[in-house]
Design a protein that fits this description.
With 680 residues, the protein is of the alpha+beta class. Among the domains are: 109 residues; 87 residues, Calcium-transporting ATPase, cytoplasmic transduction domain A (Distorted Sandwich), CATH 2.70.150; 124 residues, Calcium-transporting ATPase, cytoplasmic domain N. Helices cover 50% and strands 19% of the residues. Strand 19, helix 22 and strand 20 form a beta-alpha-beta unit.
Length: 680
């Protein structure tokens, strides 16, 4: 299809032809002095612009709907019949211009979806039989190795199996800074390599990629109707017939057909009809550009009412990856490096999550540890017993050591208790029946966690509650670091559900932020369920009311702020539309407002409504500041494990935030206020 054909089928073809005929009619009447020719051309202009309007009106009537198009069609036809040719041409031309503006605006506000479609890759370079073969992106088979060179789009979802590089993931997560990629890291279709060379094992292709799911979700969301939109639709269903009856009654009572037809035109709530959809589409489109997927207009509207946010701890407020923080030596015959080495040797055969930070710390310190222990005996809830190099090594709680009759267990228990009180997770290390020392690990608070809480409060959220299964002292340490208003610790998944329900009974509109697994009941019950770091997660993208594609916590207050701005624009647009119609109707009865003038004012109100909604497409100043790297880290820096030096790990002097271990702690449901007072 060439440019002319595209223009002919575009929204501006009809108003352009109709406007040209109106202009020629004006010239014919003024320059040539032929009123008959001018009237014929005006009728032709009305037919050109009015025919599509009449077709839409008939189609609506066929399904039992009385549309706004019917008002204009009847008014234009009546104007032609009574000889008001200029009014008929002007009304239909202006209404056609309004339709074209609406179509153009909706296309513009859907630009985020168009941009997502545009970044979808077309081709992929696949390694087949040792050779590089270029194939369509949809023809890649899961499990194949795809080569991604500098500057190329990533054609599939997959895992890096070779090479290093930096990938611009803005189309998925909204983050402007390229993410460093190495072996084992995930990459997503539609992202762009900015440096390096990557070999990627394809795990998702075609419609099974994260990008395809995002496009599908945004498309559905922009078409979904908000509650306010549903109300406007119901209002229009009754309003349009009411205006027709009013015009008929006025015409019969006064005998003034022109006045009746003018009422039909003036009563068109064109700005009212477009006021909600254009705002919803613009708001959801802006969110999608920033890596925030909102399920639909209803959820966008509901998010504007959020005044309480319940947040999971592990993996949300914290990184979810424990790090070694302390090594205390209790046996004078050993040094710190040896205590750490014994702990790592015992944990080498353990599957417990806390084994990994010990092994990583030993490797970072350059400590040589033997391979797998000769035997490993996990003791549920207490620790692990291992035999390595002919030595019996215990790592775990004081209860484990007491049960095994280890010497010096009481002193080790006191040291472990002090570490636990400071918010760490301690593990006592014993070798051949003697206490060697205590090691402790902790999870790090995300750098932007405290800033997120501050911005939530600034966005109008009155209460931020942390829900966690961890021990109260652990939860309290995180609460102090992040500034949450309330802490509920020692919770099972059903307890988190009860906590959300309790907030709702207090009259709160609750958003629950979690990982969607153990928090699933609470996420489903909350007014708005928010999934963090949903990139690559099909379940999160499809089921969450709001999915934050990246791990940036600041996207949450940004989403709430955008929802509030969108609803404010919706209310402003409704006010503009209703005030315009009211003033015009008053002007008609007072005299002075003609059919053409009324339609001109109507279209001006449509432009105002459109311009107001288009403001949502601009990025919020706070978001621009964040993207420029000037946002606050929230004061969380310095929390977490200190670095190691030499071959030993020194005791931390910071206040790291711990991850709870079932080996050496027992928790019970409880509540801690911001002041840290337990209410078990």
């Amino acid at each position: 299809m060439n440019r002319l054909q595209r223009w002919r089928h575009g929204p501006w073809a009809v108003p352009a032809v109709s406007g040209a005929l109106v202009l020629v009619a004006f010239l014919a009447a003024r320059a040539i002095g032929s009123d008959a020719a001018g009237d014929a051309l005006l009728v032709a202009a009305a037919v050109v612009a009015g025919a599509p309007i009449a077709v839409k009106a008939v189609r609506a009537l066929a399904v039992g709907a009385v549309s706004i198009d019917l008002l204009v069609a009847v008014a234009a036809a009546g104007a032609v019949v009574i000889g008001e040719h200029w009014e008929a041409a002007a009304v239909t031309f202006l209404f056609a211009v309004g339709h074209a503006l609406e179509a153009r605006t909706m296309s513009r506000t859907r630009s985020a979806l168009a941009e997502l479609v545009a970044v979808a890759p077309d081709v992929a370079v696949v390694l087949r039989d040792g050779e590089q073969v270029e194939v369509p992106a949809g023809a890649v088979v899961a499990g194949e190795t795809v080569l991604v060179k500098n500057g190329a789009k990533v054609p599939v979802d997959g895992e890096v199996v070779g090479g290093t590089g930096a990938v611009d993931e803005a189309s998925i997560t909204g983050e402007s800074v390229p993410a460093e990629k190495a072996e084992g890291d995930r990459v997503y279709a539609g992202t762009v390599s900015r440096a390096g060379f990557l070999q990627v094992r394809a795990t998702g292709v075609g419609e099974d990629t994260t990008l395809a799911r995002i496009i599908h979700r945004v498309e559905e969301a922009q078409d979904a109707r908000a509650r306010t939109q549903a109300f406007i639709d119901r209002f229009s269903t009754w309003y349009t017939p009411a205006i027709m009856l009013l015009a008929l009654a006025v015409g019969l009572v006064t005998g003034d057909v022109v006045l009746a037809l003018t009422l039909l035109v003036i009563g068109c709530p064109g700005a009212l009809v477009i006021s909600i959809p254009v705002a919803i589409v613009a708001g959801i489109g802006r969110a999608a550009r920033d890596g925030i997927l909102i399920k639909g207009g209803e959820f966008l509207e509901r998010s504007a009412k959020i005044d309480a946010v319940a947040v999971d701890k592990t993996g949300t407020l914290t990184e979810g990856r424990p790090h070694l923080t302390d090594v205390l030596v209790l046996d004078p015959a050993l040094d710190r490096a040896q205590v750490l080495a014994w702990a790592a040797a015992a944990e080498a055969g353990s599957e417990h999550p806390l084994a990994r930070p010990l092994l990583a710390a030993a490797a970072d310190a350059g400590l040589a540890t033997p391979g797998l222990p000769e035997s490993t005996e996990p003791v549920p809830g207490r620790g692990v017993i291992a035999t390595t190099g002919g030595h019996r090594v215990l790592v775990g709680s004081a209860a484990l050591l007491a049960g095994e009759g280890v010497q010096g267990a009481d002193g080790a228990a006191r040291a472990a208790g002090e570490l636990a009180a400071a918010g760490r997770t301690p593990m006592i290390v014993a070798v051949d029946g003697r206490v060697a020392g205590v090691v402790a690990v902790a999870d790090r608070v995300r750098e932007d966690a405290a800033e997120m809480v501050r911005r939530l409060h600034a966005a109008g959220v009155r209460q931020v509650v942390m829900l966690t299964g961890d021990a109260p002292q652990v939860a309290e340490a995180i609460g102090r670091a992040t500034g949450v208003d309330e802490i509920r610790a020692g919770l099972l998944p059903e307890d988190k559900l009860d906590a959300v329900r309790e907030l709702q009974r207090q009259g709160r509109t609750v958003a629950m932020v979690g990982d969607g697994v153990n928090d699933a009941p609470a996420l489903a019950t909350a007014d708005i369920g928010v999934a963090m770091g949903a990139a690559g997660s099909a379940v999160a993208v499809e089921t969450a009311d709001i999915a934050l594609m990246g791990d940036n916590l600041l996207r949450l207050p940004e989403a709430i702020g955008l929802a509030r701005r969108t609803v404010a624009v919706m209310h402003q647009n409704i006010a503009v539309a209703l005030v315009t119609v009211t003033l015009l109707l008053a002007g008609v009865f007072a005299g002075g407002v003609t059919m053409a003038l009324g339609m001109l004012v109507h279209e001006a109100s449509v432009l105002v409504v459109i311009a107001n909604a288009m403001r949502l497409l601009r990025r919020n100043p706070a978001s621009r500041q964040e993207a420029a790297g000037t946002g606050s880290s929230g004061g969380a820096s310095g929390l977490g494990a200190p670095g190691t030096s030499g071959s030993s790990c020194v005791t931390s002097t910071t206040s790291p935030i711990p991850v709870t271990s079932s080996r050496n702690s027992t928790t019970s449901g409880g509540r801690i206020s911001r002041g840290g007072v337990a209410d078990a």
